[in-house]
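User: Can you help me understand a structure? I only have the sequence.
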Amino acid sequence: MFILGSLSVTWAGVETKIYQHKLQEQKSTPGSAATKLTSPEQEQKEMAEKLMTMAPSSALECIAWGGLCLLVGFSEEIIFRGYLQTQCIAFLRSMPAGVVIAALVFGSAHGYQGVRGICLITVFGALFGIIALLRRNLFPGMLAHAWHDFATGMLLAFLRSSHMLDRLPHA
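Assistant: Let's start by predicting it. Here is the structure, written out as tokens:
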């Protein structure tokens, strides 16, 4: 989680600097076509709002969400680490290449979360791949994956029910 958190904060910082640079460039170029730039904060808010539609909103939905997270965590680990990563390592005869390819496919499968999400989830997949290799067992990754998905859903449900995102300033 520390690695993912650090990567996420770094990504946000770089994204903000790029946005500020584009804004400055747009202001300093007279007569340029004014294109509407969306701030990274606004893009993140919009993505969170999209993801919140999937978050549970009642006790029954929280229970169902828990079951779904177990199912997804277990099945994705079997597919991506248990099968794909194992096959890539055997075919390429390289553990690092097998981990990277499986992680890239895993990240790409989460394309609905945007470029930032794909990159973070690719790193997430590589970390789970390393855990599977070191532990020689998929179960720790399965539980961690399910727990992460569940905690994310509960956080989104909390944000939605508390209307915290509604109180953020609009860009």
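Now, to help you interpret it: The chain has a mean pLDDT of 86. Residues 39-167 form one domain. Let me know which part you'd like to focus on.
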